[in-house]
Each structure stands twice: as structure tokens, then as C-alpha cells.
Design a protein that fits this description.
Blueprint: E1 3-7, H1 11-23, E2 27-31, H2 34-43, E3 48-52, H3 60-67, E4 75-79, H4 84-93, E5 97-100, H5 105-121, E6 131-134, E7 137-140, E8 145-148, E9 151-153, H6 157-168, H7 176-184, H8 191-206, E10 216-219, E11 223-226
Parallel strand pairs: 1-2, 1-3, 3-4, 4-5
Antiparallel strand pairs: 6-7, 7-8, 8-9, 10-11
Length: about 230
């Protein structure tokens, strides 16, 4: 599954792009300022950005310049017809392509596919596998299904996202705040309680003895990690 970040301060445009691209099977992240986009790229496995030029707090050109300091992922600028100068500047400082508003959804999908194909063929990124297994737990991310020792397990969307993140990074310790940021996509106010409740529910569904977990372990004072053979 490819992760696409849409960064635009116009909510209607973000919503429209999300609908088009989600229908093609892409996983969508959203930002409304260039600063937010940078923060998301630093903490998430993003494969491509659709980046508006004119935004508050930090515009798209400034954000792209900063992104190019540490990332070579493909960036497609979203531009208005009146922004030809900015469009040229954007291409000169690191944009891979641009789409002019109002856009044709078919063109957006085609350009995204083209840039992802080029990026991945050059070895610029990797896609995490859609099927994950840790011990007796298996996830099929395409089907959004979970099994335990071959038997289906019903999880809520939040439980599923937490489990997938832990399984993708088995052995890595995540603090409650980091889990909250990645799964909820928000700043972690009250993260400890919310995450603890979901971890408890996961254990009740996946562990034979929840009080003595085999898979989802606590590292005291640090957070949670996934183990299992």
C-alpha cells in the first residue's frame, strides 16, 4: 500500500483528492500547512506528496525546500493558473511535477501513478508488505483482516492500526505519545489513557492470558512493543 500525503489549506480540495486516491487503494495522510507536512513526513512512511503552493504558516515552496534537505520522495505541486512564476520556481528547487487547479481527477491519478512508478523503479522507496505475521498473529492489510492461530479476530479500526504499527516494527518500543501521534494523527493530549485502553482490549482479544502477554509487551517507563516467535 502506498502512502500519499495531501497538503492544502482548502478543505474541499483535500476532501476531493482523498476520495479519488482512496478509491485507487492509496492510504491518505492530510496536512493544511507546509510545517504540518514536514512533521508528517518525518514520522510516517510517505511515498508521495501532493503539495499546494499558497498556504498559511509555511508555503509550499518553503516546505519543499526543507523537505529536500532530508527526503527525495516525489512531490507534485498543486498550483493555480496565476502561479506560473511559483510553478517554475518549484520545479527548479525540487518538485517532480505539477497539476493546475481546477484539476481532472483522472489526470491526478495518472500523475500519481507515474511518479510512484518512477520513484520506486529507481529504488527511492519501499512499500511495507500487505501481509504480516508475528508468532500466531497474521494481518492481511489488503483485506483488513486479522487471524490468531488461523482463527479470525474482530478488531476496531483503532485496535487494528495499533496492531499493524507494532507488527510492522516488531521489537521497537513505542511510547504512548508516539503511538497516539501515529494512529490518531493528532497531538497526544491524554494519550496514555487512550492508548492503554486500546492495548488492554487488544490483549484481551489476542493473548491467552492477558495479564501475562506473549505478544504485546510493556517496557516499563518507555512504552509498548511487539514480540513473538
Amino acid at each position: 500500500m502506498y502512502n500519499i500525503l495531501i497538503c492544502d489549506d482548502e478543505k474541499d480540495i483535500v476532501s476531493a483528492l482523498r476520495i479519488y486516491l482512496s478509491a485507487e487503494g492509496y492510504h491518505i495522510f492530510e496536512a493544511n500547512t507546509g510545517k504540518d507536512a514536514i512533521d508528517i513526513v518525518k514520522r510516517e512512511d510517505i511515498h508521495l506528496i501532493l503539495l499546494d503552493i499558497m498556504m498559511p504558516v509555511m508555503d509550499g515552496i518553503t516546505a519543499m525546500t526543507k523537505l529536500r534537505e532530508f527526503s527525495n520522495l516525489p512531490i507534485i505541486l498543486l498550483t493555480a493558473k496565476s502561479e506560473d512564476t511559483d510553478k517554475i520556481l518549484g520545479l527548479n528547487v525540487g518538485a517532480d511535477d505539477y497539476i493546475t487547479k481546477p484539476f481532472n481527477p483522472v489526470e491526478v491519478v495518472a500523475r500519481v501513478r507515474s511518479q510512484l512508478r518512477r520513484y520506486l523503479s529507481l529504488g527511492g522507496g519501499s512499500v511495507k508488505p500487505s501481509q504480516l505475521t508475528v508468532g500466531g498473529i497474521s494481518i492481511d492489510d489488503d483485506a483488513k483482516s486479522v487471524t490468531l492461530d488461523g482463527q479470525p479476530v474482530s478488531l476496531t479500526p483503532r485496535e487494528y492500526e495499533i496492531l499493524r504499527l507494532l507488527m510492522q516494527n516488531a521489537g521497537t518500543v513505542f511510547s504512548p505519545k508516539e503511538l497516539y501521534r501515529r494512529v490518531w494523527g493528532e497531538e497526544p493530549y491524554g494519550a496514555e489513557n487512550a492508548v492503554a485502553v486500546h492495548i488492554r482490549h487488544l490483549r484481551e482479544k489476542l493473548e491467552i492470558t492477558p495479564a501475562e502477554p506473549r505478544y504485546i509487551k510493556v517496557v516499563w517507563g518507555q512504552g509498548y512493543k511487539m514480540e513473538g516467535k
